[in-house]
Amino acid sequence: MPGCDTQTVSNESAIDVSVPPSGPGCVECTAAGGWWFHLRRCATCGHVGCCDSSPSQHARRHASETGHRVVRSYEPGEDWFWDYQAEGYYDGPELAPPNHRPLDQPVPGPEGRVPRDWERLLH
User: Fold this and answer.
1) The pTM is what?
2) Residue-wise DSSP of 64-96
3) Homologous superfamily of 7-100
4) Cα(67)–Cα(83) distance, rounded to whole angstroms?
5) pLDDT score at 60
6) CA separation for the pair 29, 108 (Å, rounded)
């Protein structure tokens, strides 16, 4: 992430470059009819979850439940990694495409499910 000190992820087993993302949006929010602010992609299994600012924080929950500690931003123009265990940004390898949510998907998203007072609901 620009302006942040980064390190290289030392636990390479936390990243599988061959696994594609699970889909265009947060798996759990999509299933429950919810919405998200930004998206994060698990670097181990490809699970796409919503960020810590989103109401449900599914990416962090996935990391906690599975032990998959490293995520990559799933937003266009962002290529940073975050390690939930170390609570820090990292440089990481190129992952299997696609590398971001669909460009026509709004932020927050998905279209049609974001409440009018969404900013009040962020963490």
Assistant:
1) 0.90
2) HHH---EEEE-STT---EEETTTTEEEE-PPPS
3) Zinc/RING finger domain, C3HC4 (zinc finger) (3.30.40.10)
4) 11
5) 98
6) 12
